[in-house]
Write a structure and sequence with these properties.
Number of domains: 1
Organism: Desulfobacula phenolica
Shape: globular
Number of strands: 6
Largest sheet: 6 strands, parallel
Helix content: 25-40%
Strand content: 15-25%
Number of helices: 7
GO molecular function: S-adenosylmethionine-dependent methyltransferase activity
CATH architecture: 3-Layer(aba) Sandwich
Pfam families: Methyltransf_11
Protein name: Demethylmenaquinone methyltransferase / 2-methoxy-6-polyprenyl-1,4-benzoquinol methylase
CATH topology: Rossmann fold
Domain Methyltransferase type: 57-152
Oligomer: single chain
Strand order of the largest sheet: 3-2-1-4-5-6
CATH class: Alpha Beta
Order of helices and strands: HHHEHEHEEHEHE
Length: 204
């Protein structure tokens, strides 16, 4: 399967699962609340060093599992941008989290209609393996970070567990989390633009 076809198949896969995504992966069967991994997610969000007035980008946001955790860190002056290329994920996210402080953007990571040097923090949670060109995506995200901004790639599963999980779904069977050293980040003006790029795998 060529790259364009694989990308289209992947997008269809996520669109078809949007309505049940939060329930399937994050709903606690005992409480009925989407806080199944709340302790682990809180660890991830704490690593972002979010200040009340920050501008935060949630890339590959899906139906919005991180929204309540990020908003709890932001004041009325803070802003959260929820980005996903699957239209149905954005629709579902907006339906559940239609708050004034959130801007919803349906876009591929390589085509983000966002200004350079405009975000204090960027989080890629449980989505990085699905990027078509991971190194190019890092470069794109680095460009829209403010100087000394923080980019975090985070997962609840190890690289091996992610690979095993994806093997069961043909649309994402090739999607992998790369070895850490393969994701070295360099902004075009990196000497003047230091970037903190953190890769987290929260297992416990």
């Amino acid at each position: 399967m060529d790259t364009d076809m694989q990308d289209m198949t992947r997008k269809t896969f996520f669109n078809e699962k949007a309505d049940t995504w939060l329930d399937k992966f994050y709903k606690d069967p005992e409480t009925g609340i989407h806080d199944r991994h709340s302790k682990k997610i809180k660890k991830i969000i704490s690593s972002l060093n979010i200040e009340p007035d920050h501008k935060v980008l949630d890339v590959g946001c899906g139906s919005g599992v991180l929204v309540p955790y990020i908003l709890s860190r932001l004041s009325s002056k803070g802003r959260l941008f929820e980005v996903d290329y699957a239209e149905n994920m954005i629709t579902q996210n907006r339906k559940v989290h239609g708050y004034d402080r959130i801007t919803f953007v349906c876009s591929d990571v390589m085509d983000l209609p966002l200004e350079d040097s405009s975000f204090d923090s960027i989080i890629c949670f449980a989505c990085f393996p699905h990027f078509r060109d991971q190194k190019a995506a890092l470069g794109k995200l680095a460009g829209i970070l403010k100087p000394n901004g923080i980019l975090t790639i985070a997962h609840l599963l190890s690289a091996k567990e992610i690979a095993d999980h994806h093997d069961g779904e043909s649309a994402v069977s090739r999607d992998r989390l790369p070895v850490k050293h393969e994701t070295a980040l360099r902004h075009p003006d990196h000497e003047q633009f230091p970037i903190a790029c953190t890769i987290l795998i929260i297992l416990n």
